């Protein structure tokens, strides 16, 4: 049996790495000691420096306990990142995202190397999933050179898939343990798990395997409000009932709304294709404002831009649907936007910090 590794680093960044990055000028601006930020070689602030992600390389020992942070330190690191860095308003949020994305990736790496226990791993992965969901909506209108949605979503699917495996392992532990020993942990996990299970359903909207999992969840989770609503949304998309789908999405709480909006570009593209047949006409138009409300667009300009992208013309902000001219297109970069940036920033504390 492989020996478990127990991290011994009690700081957010091991001293060896901090000194090396300070010496080589590799400190991030969020990690610099304010008293030295104008000097030629700024110093690191030990209370702000966070371990960065590093790939295994020749001569680099990844399993050195002195360079690994135990679960409690990893959780306090996430708490610091979300309370002190993510909430900053003096810098562009894309800089915050880049910093958090890298540092959270290092957190996941420490978890994997140490094979941290199930309950602690769940507590670590849940806020990371929330961050990746939030970022997808917050930054979806950015240029691909600044924010790559594909990379972010790949990590999101990896993290939430791993989280579901952890939940299943926890269920197995519950079945084989004295329930009195884990009842308090179970209560906390169930409150967060409802949201995560619902998010998984929404990320895999219309997917039969995701729905099958939902139907086999423990009864308390299966009957919960968020899981039930997410299942209804997934069934609606499976049946291509876009009117019901979007009306149900509008009832979701903020984080799950952001989750559903990840699929909105595809939903809108498919819906516009259906409507180009159902409302095909050479003279009659469909009200643009009604389409904005129906497909959860934030403004009429984005509606018209998306319709133009699919070669559907507009007349006085109303849409002239024509099946013959409809063109399949990937969808505009910003077509998933629903919330404004200010509203997204107002949501940030409740979305990122609720379980940290």
Class from helix and strand fractions: mainly alpha
Mean pLDDT score: 89
- Main sheet specs: 3 strands, antiparallel
Q: Report the portion of residues in β strands.
A: under 5%
Unreliable runs? none
* End-to-end distance: 33 Å
Number of strands: 3
For this entry, what is the oligomeric state of its chains?
A: single chain
Counting H and I runs of at least 4 residues, what is the number of helices?
15
| Widest β-sheet, arrangement of strands | 1-3-2
Radius of gyration: 23 Å
Quick one: overall form? globular
Note down, in words, how this protein is organized.
This protein has helices at 15-24, 71-85, 93-114, 118-138, 149-175, 179-203, 208-215, 219-222, 225-238, 242-249, 254-261, 264-278, 288-294, 300-309, 341-352; strands spanning 286-287, 313-315, 318-320. Helix 2 packs antiparallel against helix 3 and helix 4 packs parallel to helix 6. The chain is mostly helical and 356 residues long. The protein is built from 15 helices and three strands. It is 58% helix and 2% strand. The mean pLDDT is 89.
């Amino acid at each position: 049996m492989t020996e478990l590794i127990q991290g011994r680093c009690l700081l957010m960044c091991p001293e060896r790495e901090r000194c090396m990055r300070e010496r080589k000028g590799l400190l991030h601006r969020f990690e610099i000691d304010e008293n030295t930020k104008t000097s030629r070689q700024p110093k690191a602030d030990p209370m702000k420096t966070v371990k960065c992600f590093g790939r295994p390389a020749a001569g680099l020992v990844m399993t050195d306990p002195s360079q690994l942070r135990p679960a409690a330190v990893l959780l306090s690191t996430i708490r610091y990142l979300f309370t002190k860095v993510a909430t900053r308003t003096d810098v562009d949020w894309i800089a915050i995202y880049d910093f958090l994305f890298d540092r959270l990736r290092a957190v996941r790496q420490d978890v994997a190397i140490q094979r941290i226990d199930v309950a602690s791993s769940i507590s670590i992965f849940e806020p990371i999933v929330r961050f990746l969901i939030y970022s997808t909506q917050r930054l979806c209108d950015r240029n691909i050179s600044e924010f790559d949605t594909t990379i972010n979503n790949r990590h999101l699917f990896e993290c939430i898939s791993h989280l579901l495996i952890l939940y299943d392992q926890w269920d197995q532990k519950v079945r084989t343990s004295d329930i009195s020993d884990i009842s308090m942990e179970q209560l906390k996990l169930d409150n967060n798990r409802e949201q995560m299970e619902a998010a998984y359903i929404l990320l895999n909207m219309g997917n039969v395997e995701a729905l099958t999992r939902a139907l086999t969840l423990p009864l308390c989770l299966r009957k919960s409000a968020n899981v039930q609503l997410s299942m209804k949304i997934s069934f609606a998309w499976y049946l291509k009932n876009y009117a019901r789908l979007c009306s149900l999405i509008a009832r979701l709480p903020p984080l799950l709304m952001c989750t559903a909006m990840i699929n909105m570009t595809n939903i809108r593209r498919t819906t516009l294709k259906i409507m180009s047949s159902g409302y095909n006409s050479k003279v009659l138009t469909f009200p643009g404002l009604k389409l904005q409300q129906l497909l959860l667009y934030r403004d009429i300009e984005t509606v018209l831009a998306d319709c133009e992208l699919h070669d559907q013309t507009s007349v006085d902000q109303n849409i002239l649907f024509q099946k013959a001219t409809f063109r399949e297109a990937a969808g505009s970069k910003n077509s998933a936007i629903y919330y404004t940036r200010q509203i997204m920033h107002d949501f940030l504390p409740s979305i990122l910090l609720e379980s940290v």
